[in-house]
Amino acid sequence: MIRKLPPLNAVRAFEAAARHVSFTKAAEELSVTHGAISRQVALLEDWFGRPLFRRSSSQLTLTDAGRSYLPEVSAALDRLALASMYMLQQQSPTSLRVSAPPTFTMRWLIPRMSGFQRRRPDVEIRLSTSMERPNFQANLYDVAIRGAHEAPLDCGAVRFMSEHILPVCHVDALNGGALLEPKDITRFTAISYATEPYPWQEWLQSAGVADLRPANTLKFEQMYFALQAACEGLGIVLVPLFLVLDDIIAGKLCAPFGPLGIKRRDYYASFPSESDAYPLIAKFCEWLQQEGRDTESSIEEWARSQGWDLQTPAPTTLPELAGGTGSD
């Protein structure tokens, strides 16, 4: 059945004028002129072929037809307003919930967030930290950033950066050549952390000194504390190079064994395979890829200056199905 509807602007003008019993107040509410309300009401009266108001020089009153039409029109406009508000709430979100490992968030993500905010000042990023495997069924976040040795297939994901994990320590450890070969670790403290993706025993084996043991060990719950301990000269720690490159360039930390035993992982931004936030997720992932390329370029340039060859591949592009878990 084809609906026979009156002019909707005229209906809206009538409803406001009838509710206030005033063309002037209706004009103020709808931000139009008194004449515009008068013309719209007259148009509706012509459509019905009967008057809805009685006009006099001193008073405006509703006719019987106008009084019976008002509650129906008001209810219909209220339902239309509610339906429209619901649709607005279902639009693409203007906030993006991002979950990332704590140390990664503090030392890499947060220092770069202003770049994304300049691109999309309308988007609010809500950061939370976690090292757990992404669980999008719980609906706690839209994007999960994790480091992984390979990409799972249970969600969508984009690889945006590689990391190279290697031993670093305070530069004072090199005074007098005290720490130049893997065997020298027997005179130093090996700092580890519960969430480490690369344990010391594995590095010792990769370096060809699996039978050696550090003089002491110092263990923390999270990478952030272990790294801070290394910055204070308490020992040697295995951490991603991109997290400490600035400290190395500044001469505070060093990589005493060079690329020996270095281990590579990738970082993924994963997300639900189907999401209303996908357009915003895609923009965020594109930004992450650019930041990842910039970080990798800085690392590669520094590595070449040291005679290293890290052989970092190019990142993937959207959309790619993958996923990941990771350390902090």
TrEMBL record:
Keywords from the named record: DNA-binding, Transcription, Transcription regulation
Gene3D superfamilies (alphabetical): Periplasmic binding protein-like II, Winged helix-like DNA-binding domain superfamily/Winged helix DNA-binding domain
Extent of the signal sequence: none
Classification via CDD domains: PBP2_GcdR_TrpI_HvrB_AmpR_like
Listed Pfam families: HTH_1 (PF00126), LysR_substrate (PF03466)
Domain of life according to the entry: Bacteria
Start and end residues of each HTH lysR-type domain: 6-63
Name of the featured protein: Transcriptional regulator GcvA
Organism (species): Variovorax beijingensis
Gene: gcvA
